[in-house]
Design goal:
Elements lengths: L4 E9 L3 H16 L5 H17 L4 E8 L3 E8 L19 H8 L2 E7 L2 E9 L4
Antiparallel strand pairs: 1-2, 2-3, 3-5, 4-5
Helix pairs in contact: 1-2, 2-3
Amino acid sequence: MGAMVVLGAVTADRRPSTVEFLRRYVDGTLDTAGVDAEDARLVVSELGTNAVTHGSGELLGLYVAADEDCVRVEVTDGGSGSPRERRAEAEDEGGRGLMIVTAVAEHWGVRRDEHGTTVWAEVARKPR
């Protein structure tokens, strides 16, 4: 892995409509960089939805960076949670977000600090 270049960062209100904004932001940011956004958009959708549903605080943060091999996205909320993959039952309406992230991302993890919880994921970089 080479040096990561920051492609964009944004802060928005932590509410359901923000997830669509985050998807569009990733699309535009990666399009400008000539990178296919499909996998990153899916990951951001899942991480953003989890942050809205399970996080806390008024704001969400999104960070997008890339090197020659991967795109890294990070979603931060003001909570102190410990996001982890769980096994959803067939009748469950939710609970599959981190399973989807695991299936799409090369790596993902959680970082907590005094500002909240950040869930990050790296997906393979594909040219547009």
